[in-house]
Structure to design on (542 residues):
C-alpha cells in the first residue's frame, strides 16, 4: 500500500488540486485554503479561469477528514471505541494514513465514490458550497411545488452534477410529473362533477318549477290540506279511505235557480265567481277543506284529512263569518248590476269515510256517509242569512253558542226526528256574532193582494197551485192567508197580482217559517225576489 505521509494542510491542498485536475469536466473556480487559527491564506490555486471563489476553513476541513477517516475504518470493521482511542492516541495524521492505506486510495472507483459524497473525503469539503447552492435551489423548487406550482422541475445536465443531486432531481421531477397527472385527473373529474352538478341543478330547477305549477294548479281545485295529503305522502294517490269524525258544512244560495234563469251565462259565472272567491278565502282561513263546489253550493269538511280538536267550533265561526261577508258580496253585486244574494248554511258533526274515491284513471278526494246527507238536509231547511246545526254540533260547543230558534224535524231519508238549532253567534276565543236585529212588525197590506203559490220540489215548482192573500209584508218577511196549510220549512214559489187581479210576477221564492192553523196564516221569509217584483212592492202602485 502507498505511504501518503503525514496529513498536513499542504498535502490536503495538493491532493485536492490533483483530483480537480483529473476531472473530465473543467472546473472554473478559485480555491482558497485558509487557517483561521493562524490567520492568512495558506494556499491558492486557480482552475481554468476563475468564475467562483470558494473559501475553506482548515478547522472545518480537518473535522471532515476525521469523519471521513473514521467511516473508512468503521467499514473495515474497527469499532467506535477503537476509533476514539486511535484518534486520541495516534492523532489525525497517523489515523489518516491508516485509513487511506486500508481504503486503497489509489483505486479510481474508490476515489470517485469517496470524494463525490458531500462532507466526506477530500473533495467533499470543496464541493460542499457547490452542493449547498444546489440544495438551496432544490429547496426553493420544493417550496414552490408545496405552494401548488407543479410546473417546477429540477434541471439536470448529463455529467455535470453529482450522483446525489441527479438522483434527487429525478425524484422531484417524477414527483411533479405525478402531481401534474393527478391534478389533470382531478381537474377532469372536477369538470365532470361540475357538469353533473349543473345538470342536477337544472333538473332540480325544472322539478321545482313543475312542483310549483302542480301545487298552484292543484291549489285551485282542492284545499291545501288535501293537496298536501296527496303530494307529500307516498301513498297519497292510493285509492281508499278511513273512517273519521268530522264536522260537515253545506252552503247554498237561496233562489239561485230563478236568478240563473234570467241572467246571461257570462254574467252569472262572473257573479258566482265573485261570491266563491270571498267564501273560499274565509273557509281556508278557518282551515276548512273544500270537497266540492256544487254549482252555487259548497261542501266542506273540518277534520279531514287532518283532524283538529276544535273542528266544530271553527266550522261554526266560519259559517258566521261567511254570513257576515254576504254584505261585501252584495255590495259588489250592486256595483256590477247583479241581483243580491242570500245564503243558507247547514252544519252537522259525525262519522264519514274520507279518502281517494274513483279509479286509477280518475279519482278525487271525497267523503261518504250519513253526515253528508244530513248536512244537505239541514241546509235545505234554512232561509237566507240563516245557520242551522244538528244536535251533535250543538253539544260539541253548546257553552259557546248563542242560539235563536230551535225545532225538531224529520229530514227526508231519516226515520226519527232530529233537533235543529239556529246559531246567531259564538263566544270565547272565537267571538263572532250576527246582527239579528229585525223588524218584527209586518206592515199590513191594504187591500190584501192576491197570490198563488206552489210547493218547490228539487228546486222546481209543483204543478198544483194554491190561492191565498198577501196580508202583511216587510221584506224579506210576509204573511199569507190561505186555506192550504203547509208544513214548516216548505219552499214555495209565489205569483203576485195587483189590485185588479192582473199578474205582476212569479219570480218570488220563499220558505214557510211558521204555520198558524187557527188563523189560517203562513209566515213566509222570501229567499229571492225578482227586481221587477221588488220595484212593484216598493212603488206607490202597491
Amino acid at each position: 500500500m502507498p505511504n501518503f505521509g503525514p496529513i498536513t494542510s499542504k498535502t490536503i491542498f495538493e491532493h485536492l488540486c490533483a483530483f480537480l485536475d483529473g476531472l473530465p469536466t473543467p472546473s472554473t473556480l478559485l480555491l482558497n485554503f485558509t487557517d483561521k487559527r493562524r490567520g492568512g491564506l495558506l494556499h491558492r490555486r486557480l482552475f481554468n479561469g476563475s468564475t467562483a471563489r470558494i473559501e475553506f476553513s482548515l478547522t472545518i476541513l480537518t473535522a471532515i477528514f476525521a469523519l471521513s477517516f473514521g467511516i473508512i475504518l468503521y467499514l473495515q470493521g474497527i469499532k467506535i471505541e477503537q476509533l476514539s482511542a486511535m484518534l486520541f492516541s495516534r492523532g489525525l495524521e497517523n489515523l489518516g494514513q491508516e485509513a487511506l492505506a486500508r481504503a486503497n486510495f489509489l483505486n479510481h472507483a474508490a476515489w470517485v465514490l469517496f470524494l463525490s459524497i458531500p462532507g466526506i473525503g477530500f473533495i467533499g469539503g470543496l464541493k460542499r458550497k457547490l452542493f449547498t447552492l444546489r440544495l438551496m435551489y432544490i429547496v426553493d423548487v420544493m417550496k414552490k411545488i408545496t405552494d401548488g406550482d407543479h410546473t417546477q422541475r429540477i434541471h439536470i445536465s448529463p455529467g455535470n452534477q453529482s450522483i446525489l443531486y441527479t438522483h434527487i432531481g429525478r425524484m422531484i421531477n417524477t414527483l411533479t410529473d405525478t402531481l401534474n397527472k393527478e391534478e389533470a385527473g382531478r381537474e377532469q373529474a372536477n369538470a365532470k362533477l361540475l357538469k353533473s352538478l349543473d345538470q342536477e341543478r337544472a333538473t332540480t330547477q325544472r322539478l321545482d318549477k313543475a312542483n310549483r305549477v302542480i301545487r298552484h294548479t292543484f291549489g285551485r281545485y282542492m284545499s291545501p290540506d288535501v293537496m298536501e295529503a296527496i303530494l307529500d305522502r307516498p301513498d297519497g294517490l292510493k285509492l281508499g279511505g278511513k273512517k273519521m269524525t268530522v264536522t260537515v258544512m253545506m252552503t247554498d244560495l237561496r233562489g239561485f235557480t230563478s236568478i240563473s234563469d234570467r241572467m246571461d251565462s257570462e254574467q252569472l259565472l262572473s257573479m258566482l265567481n265573485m261570491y266563491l272567491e270571498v267564501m273560499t278565502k274565509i273557509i281556508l282561513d278557518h282551515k276548512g277543506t273544500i270537497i266540492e263546489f256544487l254549482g252555487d253550493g259548497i261542501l266542506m269538511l273540518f277534520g279531514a284529512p287532518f283532524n283538529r280538536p276544535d273542528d266544530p267550533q271553527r266550522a261554526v265561526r266560519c259559517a258566521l263569518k261567511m254570513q257576515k261577508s254576504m254584505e261585501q258580496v252584495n255590495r259588489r253585486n250592486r256595483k256590477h248590476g247583479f241581483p243580491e244574494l242570500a245564503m243558507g248554511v247547514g252544519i252537522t258533526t259525525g262519522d264519514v269515510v274520507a279518502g281517494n274515491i274513483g279509479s286509477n284513471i280518475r279519482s278525487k278526494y271525497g267523503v261518504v256517509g250519513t253526515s253528508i246527507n244530513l248536512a244537505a238536509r239541514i241546509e235545505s231547511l234554512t232561509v237566507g242569512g240563516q245557520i242551522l246545526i244538528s244536535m251533535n254540533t250543538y253539544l260539541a260547543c253548546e257553552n259557546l253558542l248563542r242560539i235563536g230558534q230551535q225545532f225538531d224535524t224529520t229530514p227526508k231519508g231519516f226515520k226519527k226526528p232530529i233537533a235543529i238549532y239556529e246559531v246567531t253567534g259564538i263566544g270565547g276565543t272565537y267571538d263572532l256574532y250576527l246582527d239579528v236585529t229585525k223588524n218584527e212588525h209586518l206592515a199590513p197590506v191594504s187591500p190584501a193582494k192576491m197570490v198563488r203559490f206552489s210547493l218547490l220540489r228539487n228546486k222546481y215548482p209543483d204543478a198544483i197551485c194554491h190561492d191565498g192573500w198577501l196580508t202583511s209584508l216587510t221584506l224579506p218577511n210576509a204573511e199569507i192567508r190561505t186555506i192550504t196549510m203547509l208544513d214548516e220549512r216548505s219552499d214555495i214559489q209565489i205569483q203576485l197580482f195587483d189590485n185588479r187581479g192582473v199578474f205582476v210576477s212569479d219570480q218570488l221564492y220563499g220558505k214557510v217559517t211558521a204555520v198558524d192553523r187557527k188563523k189560517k196564516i203562513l209566515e213566509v221569509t222570501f229567499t229571492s225576489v225578482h227586481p221587477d217584483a221588488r220595484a212593484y212592492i216598493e212603488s206607490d202602485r202597491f
